[in-house]
């Protein structure tokens, strides 16, 4: 279980999260909805250990998080992967698609090689795209690479923050199917953040509206 308890986040004087608690269960798809600006992405960043809250605690399978971002314990950090809405903001534009997919493997000291090709196939990227750079592929292709990168270290929790909002319907359907297949295979827990109610209805087996979290 990935659990956030009584999380408070402030941006300057603005309180973005006020003692919010939230749980992502393994094996299921937890949906989180709510209007733009209510704090969903902020919660996603705390749950993926990318943002240190002003107060509150996060535990990963019962283990408390004591350090955040790059300083977080490696085995906790790699248990959770975050997929953002805008792939262009989530990649280094100098890298090739293959290098983007293999980044976590390289950081873990594992050679990408065959595994990169397998991951690319899993998300529907053809081999000819692997040598291209971000400006030479579409948003949908780049988001496929970001999903492959997120799955590369087999995380126990996958946080999809408006993962398909920018994409066409067929890419959306395919990437949701990829995440679902991954969950079926590994028993990972998925957090699906979307303001698209139709998608939420199809995807999540438990839906939480952000206003339910506010006390
Ligand atoms: P959502 O994902 O639900 O749209 P966010 O978590 O992105 O909401 O934002 C919650 C609130 O915090 C918004 O008012 C937003 O403008 C503000 N906010 C988000 N990120 C920052 C930041 N880095 N600096 C200042 N304010 C921010």
TrEMBL record:
| Every ABC transporter domain range | 2-214
Under the heading Gene3D superfamilies, the entry gives: P-loop containing nucleotide triphosphate hydrolases
Cite a single GO MF annotation. ATP hydrolysis activity
Q: Which InterPro entries match?
A: AAA+_ATPase, ABC_transp_ATP-bind, ABC_transporter-like_ATP-bd, P-loop_NTPase
What are the protein's UniProt keywords?
ATP-binding, Nucleotide-binding, Transport
User: In which domain of life is the source organism classified?
Assistant: Bacteria
SMART domains, sorted = AAA
CDD domains, sorted? ABC_NikE_OppD_transporters
Task: List the Pfam families hit by this protein, alphabetically.
Answer: ABC_tran
Gene Ontology biological process terms in this record? transmembrane transport
| Listed PROSITE patterns | ABC_TRANSPORTER_2
Q: Please state which protein family the record places this protein in.
A: Belongs to the ABC transporter superfamily.
Q: Which PANTHER family match?
A: D,D-DIPEPTIDE TRANSPORT ATP-BINDING PROTEIN DDPF-RELATED (PTHR43776:SF7), TRANSPORT ATP-BINDING PROTEIN (PTHR43776)
| Name the UniProt record assigns to this protein | ABC transporter, ATP-binding protein
């Amino acid at each position: 279980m990935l659990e956030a308890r009584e999380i408070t986040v402030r941006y300057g004087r603005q309180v973005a999260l006020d003692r919010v608690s939230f749980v992502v269960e393994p094996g299921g798809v937890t949906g989180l909805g709510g209007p733009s600006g209510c704090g969903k992405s902020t919660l996603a960043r705390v749950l993926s250990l990318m943002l240190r809250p002003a107060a509150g605690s996060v535990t990963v399978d019962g283990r408390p998080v004591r350090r955040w971002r790059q300083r977080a314990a490696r085995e906790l950090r790699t248990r959770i992967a975050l997929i953002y809405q805008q792939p262009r903001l989530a990649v280094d534009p100098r890298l090739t698609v293959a290098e983007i997919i293999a980044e976590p493997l390289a950081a873990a000291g594992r050679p990408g090689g065959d595994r990169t090709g397998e991951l690319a196939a899993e998300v529907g990227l053809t081999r000819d795209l692997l040598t291209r750079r971000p400006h030479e592929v579409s948003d949908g292709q780049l988001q496929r690479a970001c999903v492959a990168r997120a799955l590369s270290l087999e995380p126990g929790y996958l946080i999809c923050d408006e993962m398909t909002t920018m994409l066409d319907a067929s890419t959306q359907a395919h990437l949701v199917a990829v995440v679902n297949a991954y969950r079926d295979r590994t028993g990972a827990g998925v957090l699906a953040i979307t303001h698209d109610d139709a998608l939420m209805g199809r995807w999540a087996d438990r839906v939480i509206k952000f206003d339910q979290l506010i006390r």
